[in-house]
Design goal:
heterodimer; A: about 425 residues; about 50% helix; B: about 300 residues; 12 helices; about 0% strand
């Protein structure tokens, strides 16, 4: 008896390991599947696990449920730091050939990794079927297109070059919140006045928010062409103008809270502005949703403006959804993508998340004051890609540059940051 | 033949699942990890060729990796020194005949029962870098606030946010957590020394110091070695505590190879991540193997 048991155990283990190896994916072409006929579960992977992001996802799921009553939404969200935890989980699942039905990624260079790895499907046909090409702005379509193909459906558009300010703190320092500085020098002069009142002029949090601040200063200091050139090799990282920009970043850091690395994510830094402990915070416009959820009023409690020196520029990032190769329910995934791309889905989602719809036909009459201004800016501004959010450069480049920026927070070595940023650019630029 | 199989067959079958599982999930994965570390897979794209030990030489020449190794050294020295000193001290105090030994033993050992992640959340708050004299100082929390309120404000510092020595601050919670364990080891060591030996030494006219120096310390050296090995290899692998205290994985000040491996991994740089993993394995082996040799020799004797 005992012998038979152990034999059984051995066989069971062998069987298990064989099953694990045999889980290959069948690559049926998903182009000719009609999402209307789809049934079952749709597993969607995001890093929208709480706050305004979760609320936005819930709103989207509601629309999805109404559009496709036969499908069940399966929330596979993983929480944590601008998606870094989620991305590692996702990478492991994709590598194991066990993809979700759809996953979130930042539009732009970040998608390139998945495309290179042959992990996501070409959605050009899907865009034609749903007539999305005419509904999304051309600028956005250009940024989504890689070698003539489109691989993802954006759910929203965010702006990363916004300064959020506490009205009271500014007034006490003798500044007019309605008339922000127009360049970095003027902004730093304002910060000196705030410093004199004993408040922290500029709130910032851990590594990635420092990278976003760095990106804003680069954009402000180098201008649109200079900034874009950093990513395509046209701007020399070793140039004198980049050095000036890094010096400006050093100056900006000198106005920030010293416990920046201890703050767990962007929200605590924005909280400092909300509480009146700090005057400014450079943050993407997801901060708007936070102010609104906390019952603050624009104009009286908080003010917002484009980072000084970047007015007329829209530092863009977008969350977008993909169809992974070998997705268990490709028809359901297409249904999900159709809801995301649709005017009703985008209106419901972005109203809550604080971003603006990528679909220009979405109804935005009841959106907040900030969102309306952002919609207007997006239609007329010059659009650049955000560094900190994977739109400008691939993840590996961003990662190395983040390390260099994080190091700079400690040693303040301008030449060191410049030369390592130049080395990193040389390593990754094609 | 069949008769022999009958005697060892059941044993082999009983062990087979374990052997297979360990074989696959430990040894095969080590080999696979080493294989990846020899490729040029620096993006999500599948690797195209083997590059030999290029990743290793690049890493060792990389100032960021050197910084992480330096951090690891500081962390290990402070962590090891701290746990040994406090562990020994507590064991020595408890070893003196005193009341309430059981109570204090539990008190000192208790932190070990908490996971690094849970205690890290508390220590993140305690080790907040803000100081009362800085702008925004009214928000000061944790140790800096405590030092200020007991009149030791001059001792406030930026803890782990210091790029050179910050990593030593991470060793503080680690020491707090594992000193009790080292104490238990030493206490067992003390108890293993028969009273007769001490009495004999005292009768021979030995002073208390000489008693410790020539009779007790030599008998504690195996305990000491165990403590060094256990704490040393824990320090090399320390990842969870750092990640729990420091919110952003990419924070340069406290980067050690284990956290750098994670950063490389989420950046899809699989080859470099695997190479760091292999380097860590070698470092841990350098600590553990001499110990294994030592114990097997001791057993033979």
């Amino acid at each position: 008896m005992r012998r038979r048991l152990s034999l059984l155990a051995g066989v069971a283990v062998l069987g298990l390991s064989l099953a694990a190896c045999g889980g290959g994916s069948d690559n049926s072409t998903s182009d000719n599947i009609n999402p209307k006929d789809a049934t079952g579960k749709v597993g969607v992977f995001t890093w929208w696990a709480d706050g305004s992001e979760k609320a936005g996802l819930d709103a989207l799921v509601k629309v999805f449920g109404a559009d496709y009553p036969k499908l069940a939404f399966d929330n596979l969200a993983v929480a944590g730091g601008a998606g870094s935890q989620a991305k590692s989980v996702l990478a492991a699942q994709l590598k194991a050939g066990n993809p979700p039905d759809s996953f979130q990624a930042h539009a732009g260079a970040e998608l390139q990794d998945y495309i290179d790895a042959d992990q996501i499907e070409d959605l050009t046909g899907f865009y034609k079927d749903n007539d999305l090409t005419s509904q999304f702005p051309k600028d956005l379509i250009d940024r989504l297109t890689v070698d003539g193909k489109i691989y993802s459906v954006p759910s929203n558009i965010h702006r990363a070059n916004v300064v959020w300010a506490n009205v009271d703190v500014l007034k006490k320092a003798g500044l007019d919140p309605a008339k922000p500085a127009t360049d970095l020098a003027g902004w730093f002069a304002d910060m000196d006045k705030i410093k004199a009142t004993g408040k922290t002029p500029l709130a910032v949090a851990g590594s990635w928010t420092q990278v976003q601040l760095f990106e804003n200063i680069l954009l402000s200091s180098l201008g649109v062409d200079g900034y874009n050139g950093l990513w395509d090799g046209k701007t020399d990282w070793k140039g004198a103008d980049v050095k000036t920009a890094i010096q400006a970043y050093e100056k900006a850091l000198s106005y920030t809270n010293t416990d920046r690395d201890s703050l767990s994510d962007w929200a605590p830094a924005t909280q400092l502005v909300e509480d009146g402990a700090a005057a400014y915070n450079v943050m993407g416009d997801w901060a708007e949703a936070k102010f609104e959820q906390d019952g603050k009023k624009p104009g009286t409690d908080y003010a917002y403006f484009a980072t000084p020196g970047t007015a007329g520029t829209f530092d863009f990032l977008a969350d977008s959804f993909t169809l992974p190769k070998g997705a268990p329910n490709p028809a359901g995934a297409k249904a999900w993508l159709a809801t995301i791309g649709s005017a009703s889905g985008q209106a419901a989602f972005n109203k809550v998340k604080g971003s603006i719809p990528a679909n220009t036909t979405a109804k935005t009459d009841d959106f907040s004051e900030y969102q309306k201004s952002a919609i207007k800016d997006f239609s007329q501004d010059k659009i650049v890609s955000s560094l900190a959010h994977g739109a400008a450069v691939p993840v590996a480049w961003l990662n190395d540059l983040s390390t260099a920026v994080s190091k700079f927070g400690g040693d303040k070595n301008v030449d060191g940051l410049q030369s390592s940023a130049a080395d990193i650019a040389a390593k990754f630029a094609k | 033949m069949l008769k022999r199989a009958k005697t060892w067959g059941p044993g082999v079958l009983l062990l087979a699942p374990t052997i297979i599982l360990v074989g696959v999930f430990v040894y095969w994965l080590i080999i696979e990890n080493f294989r990846v570390s020899l490729t040029n897979q620096h993006t999500a794209k599948p690797s195209s060729k083997y590059v030999g030990f290029e990743n290793y030489s690049n890493l060792l020449a990389d100032p960021n990796f050197q910084h992480s190794l330096m951090n690891l050294l500081i962390l290990t020295v402070v962590f090891l020194g701290g746990t040994l000193i406090f562990g020994f001290l507590w064991a020595w105090i408890l070893e003196q005949p005193a009341k309430g030994e059981g109570f204090f033993r539990s008190v000192y050992l208790f932190p070990m029962s908490i996971s690094f992640i849970a205690s890290g959340v508390v220590w993140r708050w305690l080790l907040s870098s803000l100081q009362t004299s800085q702008p925004g100082g009214e928000r000061t929390t944790g140790l800096n606030r405590l030092l200020d309120s007991v009149g030791l404000g001059a001792l406030q510092n930026d803890w782990w946010s210091n790029p050179n020595w910050g990593i030593a601050a991470i060793a503080v919670p680690a020491i707090w957590q594992l000193s009790g364990y080292v104490m238990a080891l030493f206490l067992a060591g003390f108890r293993g020394i028969p009273d007769e030996l001490r009495e004999a030494a005292r009768i021979d006219g030995c002073s208390e110091w000489k008693l410790y120096r020539h009779v007790i310390f030599p008998q504690l050296s195996p305990v000491m070695l165990s403590a060094v090995i256990i704490i040393g290899h824990m320090s090399l692998k320390l990842f969870d505590l750092i990640r729990a205290i420091v919110p952003d994985a990419n924070t340069y000040d406290v980067q050690v190879p284990a956290t750098l491996m994670w950063v490389k991994y989420i950046g899809s740089d699989y080859a470099d991540a695997a190479a760091i993993g292999s380097i860590l394995l070698v470092l841990v082996a350098l600590v553990v193997i001499p110990y294994l040799i030592h114990t097997s020799r001791a057993e033979k004797r």
